[in-house]
């Protein structure tokens, strides 16, 4: 046996099979593997042989790390040299219920320092239950010149000053998604930090911020970003302001409204209805804080195209929900509060033949004397229509 063959036999128990599978030129193999999107498939591919391992290593541009303590950033950078997108999870799920002590860990800064040295071309960072400071956000903003997407879900440790640093320095930003985070909200002036020449934003979500925002800055930003497809507002945005934003962004596919309870004149109501009817691409609707039934008909024109309706912040009654769902023939996902009661869920069965997912949340999970809600009786009489392809049902109660 030749020395090269001996080496190959030691590298792999099936050397002939390994040689036959890895006979592609490296460039071809890397190109083929770059088309694989599933993390599981890519991991399986890397186990075939050393050539495939190396090709997968060099062709991977996104890495998902489900536990930030399962691997060090140095090991990640050594294994994958061309990463442009990172998804990283930190604290365990039960931290959402205040079952993890303060300063538990999961700090992002050490990761950012390594990424700045190894991945100066990083474009996307998606964090869940991580601790991130304003200093870390500023470091992120100035260290990656082509940075495009930041998504923070259930993170803490930062304030709107950190968002201001992102807005100021990330000239190519396309996504800023701030959802369910523990933020020190110091006001809405951070929106004015986007340069007047900035036009690239496609996704903007600040729904969980509590303070009033600089609406003039927001209106100018939305008007400049003609490719914006997702806009989720906090409850400080009024109906009249919502109408002004929609006039500038009829291309939206996902909308999170602000408060839906402002007193409108008849002319203002007509203008809001007209603005919504022009949003022909919209498939997701969210928000509707403090919704008043008198204004819900303004939504009817846009409901025709909806596939996802999230009413988990809107305490609608059963009759209000029934009237709304009568205009939602394409709905596939629906989230509601239990204020709709059993009659509201019966309306779901009558009006949503394509429904695949239904979630019902308690309006007040800590009120043991609550007099409204849904009962187990609905399960026997609501899922009903044989042609309804319901595959996910989540009923959360006060028990």
UniProtKB/TrEMBL annotation:
Keyword Amino-acid biosynthesis: no
Record's keyword terms, sorted: Auxin signaling pathway
Pfam families recorded: F-box_5, LRR_6, Transp_inhibit
Keyword Manganese: no
Domain (F-box) ranges: 24-65
Annotated InterPro entries: COI1_F-box, F-box-like_dom_sf, F-box_dom, Leu-rich_rpt, LRR_dom_sf, Transp_inhibit
Gene Ontology BP term (one): auxin-activated signaling pathway
SMART domains: FBOX
GO cellular component, as recorded: SCF ubiquitin ligase complex
Region annotation (Disordered) ranges: 1-23
Superkingdom field: Eukaryota
Protein name: F-box domain-containing protein
């Amino acid at each position: 046996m030749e020395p090269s063959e001996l080496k190959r036999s030691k590298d792999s128990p099936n050397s002939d099979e390994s040689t036959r599978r890895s006979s592609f030129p490296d460039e071809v193999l890397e190109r083929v593997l770059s088309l694989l999107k599933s993390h599981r498939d890519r991991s399986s591919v890397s186990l075939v042989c050393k050539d495939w391992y190396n090709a997968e290593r060099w062709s991977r541009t996104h890495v998902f790390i489900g536990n930030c303590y399962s691997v060090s950033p140095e090991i990640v950078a050594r294994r994958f040299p061309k990463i442009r997108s990172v998804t990283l999870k930190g604290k365990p799920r039960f931290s959402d219920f205040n079952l993890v002590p303060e300063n538990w860990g999961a700090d992002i800064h050490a990761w950012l320092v390594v990424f700045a040295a190894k991945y100066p071309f990083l474009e996307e960072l998606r964090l869940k239950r991580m601790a991130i400071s304003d200093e870390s956000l500023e470091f992120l903003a100035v260290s990656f010149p082509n940075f495009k997407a930041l998504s923070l879900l259930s993170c803490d440790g930062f304030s709107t000053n950190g968002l201001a640093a992102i807005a100021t320095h990330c000239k190519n930003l396309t996504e800023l998604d701030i959802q369910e985070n523990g933020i020190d909200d110091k006001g809405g002036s951070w929106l004015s930090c986007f340069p007047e020449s900035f036009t690239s934003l496609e996704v903007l979500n600040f729904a969980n911020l509590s303070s009033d925002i600089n609406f003039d800055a927001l209106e100018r930003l939305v008007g400049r970003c003609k490719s914006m497809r997702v806009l989720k507002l906090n409850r400080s945005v009024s109906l009249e302001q919502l109408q002004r934003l929609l006039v500038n962004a009829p291309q939206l596919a996902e909308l999170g409204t602000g408060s839906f309870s402002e007193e409108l004149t008849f002319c203002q109501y007509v203008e809001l209805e007209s603005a919504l009817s022009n949003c022909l691409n919209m498939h997701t609707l969210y928000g509707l804080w403090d919704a008043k039934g008198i204004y819900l008909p303004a939504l009817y024109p846009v409901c025709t195209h909806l596939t996802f309706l999230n009413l988990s912040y809107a305490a609608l009654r059963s009759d209000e929900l029934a009237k709304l769902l009568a205009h939602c023939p394409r709905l596939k996902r629906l989230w509601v509060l239990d204020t709709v009661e059993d009659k509201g869920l019966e309306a779901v069965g009558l009006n949503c033949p394509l429904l695949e997912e239904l979630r019902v949340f308690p309006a007040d999970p800590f009120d043991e004397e609550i007099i409204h809600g849904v009962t187990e009786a609905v399960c026997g009489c609501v899922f009903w229509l044989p042609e309804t392809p319901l595959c996910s049902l989540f009923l959360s109660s006060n028990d």
